[in-house]
Amino acid sequence: MYGMLLESVQHFVQLEYGEHVWKQALFTAGCKLTVFNTYQQYPDSLIPDLAAALSAITGRSIDDFMVFFGRCFVRFFSNFGYDELIKSTGRYFCDFLHSVDNIHLQMRFTYRKMKSPSMQLIEVDEKGAVLVYRSTRSGFSKYLRGQLMEIAKQLYNMDITIKVLESQNDIPGGTTGPISIQGGLKTVIVKYRLDFDNREYMEKRVHIKAHPSQLTLPSVSSSLLLELFPFALILNEKMCITAAGEKLIESWMLNNVTKSPNELMGAKVTDHFKLRRPTGITFTWDNMKRLQTVNFEIQLLKGQTVLEAEEASALMDNKSAVPELDDPSKLMSVARRGSHGLKNILLKGEMRYIKDINSLVFLCSPLINNLEELREVGLYLNDLNTHGLSREMVFSGFSHNSRLDLMCEREEKRAEELETSLALADSWKRQGDELLYSMIPRSIAERLREGQNPLETCQTFEEVTVLFAEIQESLMSDDSIKYAMTTVTTLNAAFSAFDSLVQTPMAYKVETVGKVYMAVSGAPDPNPCHVQHTADLALGMLQSIHDLKLPGVGVKIGVHTGPIVAGIVGLKVPRYCLFGDTVNTSSRMESSSDINKIQVSGYTANKLKKYGYKLTFRGKVAVKGKGDMETFWLEGGPSGTATTGSKKVEKKK
What we know:
Radius of gyration: 41 Å
Distance between the termini: 73 Å
Strand content: 15-25%
Shape: elongated
């Protein structure tokens, strides 16, 4: 499908549901695109997928959204002037319904790859009409309902109700019709009953009587009619060809050089022509009489061209030189191939029933888009009807396609530039987010982004576990600059190793000040296992310092558990800070610890013992502001490993 359908959906979903819902729908549908190009093609499945996504988000049914999308398209295409095109088809809604297929045919000049459905009115009365919809795509019948209701309301100022009388192969939410046993896609066929006030149309169009002056006009001979329409066909009730225009006979002879023109007269029309549009209609007398207001497309079936006949004759004369051609089936396949022949001519026009001769007259002209197609079907400009606009349309189609190609190239280039800019903007946003999340927790950052006051981010946590780790260096240097550079290198290696151990939400790195590294578990994300996770982090830090093998470098670690208050401090360089006696006590545990040792408070030790951690009583330690406190050394985890100095060794039983 073309991007204009998706543009209409995007515009009105954003208008009625908001930008947030639209982005959520794109994410749910798995669509990574944020901008749609009017003349670019996209997968047919996008519309049903978006309807399903919006249904899951809002609770409305998928069918409701497909109807809504159809209405959106009608509202949207008014910006392109297509509402005026529809209004020009006739005064009445039935005039438009008769002309839907014709509108789709004309749109091929602008949307050359459009796969339009086929629609025909099969019944008309004072209370409405019966419309038959045919398509190779399933799931779009509800979309058509929305279009019809919106066109009737906006352009014809009438309310209509639509009921489905019959439906075949229409799978809800699908985009491709089911596969038939013989191969290929089954056609989706839906028959609608449209109820609306149709009395004026019936009076002016159907029940109208001929003016007396028309009854006195002289009759017109069929030869004159065929002279005016050189591509016309006259068919009798048995659907046999009784007469044909001169140019049509010439085109038939170009594609059937081995046959006589007399073979065309009296032959079944289906022997030499194929009905292309409307789709799904059989080439019968009753159907042709009933659909006199519909434009038909009939394709001349290909026989044997002059070039193919010459090739076949030459091959017959020289088949002895080519052993592969001794097989008659191979020879016939070569003679019948059409790769070098003319392109099949396509005729477009109306079937008119002439009561006086009880015949159908197909008043048509070749369907030619440009000069290249004219050459491909073996015709010239002077072969086309002298009246009408056939010749002008060939030239206008040529110039229009050239302009359209240029415009499409420009639009595609703009779309590529826009996508590149959006991708770059997304990259910058991700980098900015990563930088922000490195300064403050993600959950807090999202609350600030939504406009929350920084003061409102302050929280009280009943119990968390805080860790302090300080890097110790035993090697000194007389050169202060050299010593400072060595210290920076050491701290970078150690703290980078510590960072790799911190995993949110199990633990959060609060800050580094000088040689001290601070972390917490249980804030800002509540964590019931904060004691165990902090103990594991401390043991991992001790092991990482050992693995780095930095000469003369060790670490002192202290851990304590208790309540804290946390929040954002500062505006220029905001930081997530912890406050409370728990922070001070944890800092004292670190400062009074030994190198390559983990000192924990008695309260924390009691909790760790419950989980099987290896702890050794150190004794009482004087803590500033707290007096003497019982502390413990954390030496191993519950797995049965012990830590001696900075090296883990397996305990012997």
